[in-house]
Specification:
- Belongs to the short-chain dehydrogenases/reductases (SDR) family.
- Keywords: Oxidoreductase.
- This is NAD(P)-dependent oxidoreductase.
- It is a single chain.
- The protein is α/β, with parallel strands linked by helices.
- The chain has a single domain, classed as NAD(P)-binding Rossmann-like Domain (Rossmann fold), CATH 3.40.50.
- It is built from eight helices and nine strands.
- The strands form two sheets. Strands 3-2-1-4-5-6-7 form a seven-stranded parallel β-sheet, with helices on both faces.
- Strand 4, helix 4 and strand 5 form a beta-alpha-beta unit.
- Helix 1 packs parallel to helix 2, helix 1 packs across helix 8 and helix 4 runs parallel beside helix 5.
- The longest helix is centred in the middle third of the chain and has 28 residues.
- It is globular, with a radius of gyration of 17 Å.
- 43% of the residues are buried.
- It binds NADP nicotinamide-adenine-dinucleotide phosphate (NAP).
- NADP nicotinamide-adenine-dinucleotide phosphate binds next to helix 1, helix 4 and helix 6.
Amino acid sequence: MSRGKGQVAVITGASNGIGAASALALASEGFQVALGARSVDKLDEVAQAIAKETGVQPFVMTLDVRNEADVKHFVAAVVEKYGRIDVLVNNAGLAKGVSNVIDEADTTNWDQMIDTNVKGLLLMTRESVPHMIKGGNGHVINLGSIAGHQAYAGGAVYCATKFAVRAITDSLRQELLGLPIRVTTVDPGMVNTGFSLVRLGDQEQADQVYAGMTPLTAEDIADCVAFAATRPKHVNIDTIIVKPTDQAGAGKVARRL
Ligand code: NAP
């Protein structure tokens, strides 16, 4: 399909999981895609697979969304290559650890979650949206979570970052009212990606998270991203909350063990 023809989509955290799948879904819709993440080798692999499947040759550049200079450099390079940015998928993000607040010995994990999930998203948005305004077309799609709607023990900081994503999304939609720019959050429940391995640091424990239930896949979420991005320009999808059929909320999971 070619509903994205002539448009450029930037996807952060595109080296794995939901970001990689969203990049493929958008390229399949005819978007040019610019991929950023810290692991450039993995980005290259994702780009090759996208080129093979869709014929779209992605732009690839190393990007740490926590680093302001990196963000400026990345966005400037995309604009130099394509002359525009139409869609920003603020997907780069992570949870680190499952400690209760009073048990967390140092603040490294807190800093990483807050700097990536909140500050990184803000930096990417601030750098990209002026180019959308200039081009007369834009769409910011933020990856939130059901953790942005419902907090749980052991997830205070991750949940706080996703509540923040929801607040930023709502503020931004009001700030950009009157401009041809759409603002969406996609808020998933459990998705089987690299997320749990990054959070828990152990593959066996990560596999246990999905034991006896059927989680969402990265492609399920990429479908939601592509759906929001390909609606007619007068249609703003505010929020998509999407959970596995086996999940009714944070920690409420049907398992067949
Ligand atoms: P994933 O497979 O671990 O992918 C995360 C991506 O973020 C990777 O490409 C990683 O790439 C990138 N990333 C992490 N820190 C970064 C940084 N500082 N700068 C640039 N890129 C960075 O996890 P995922 O499930 O696809 O997660 C994507 C988003 O979905 C996150 O925002 C997450 O919070 C959200 N989400 C996930 C779930 C779930 O159950 N999986 C549920 C709700 C919401 P590098 O390591 O190469 O930088």
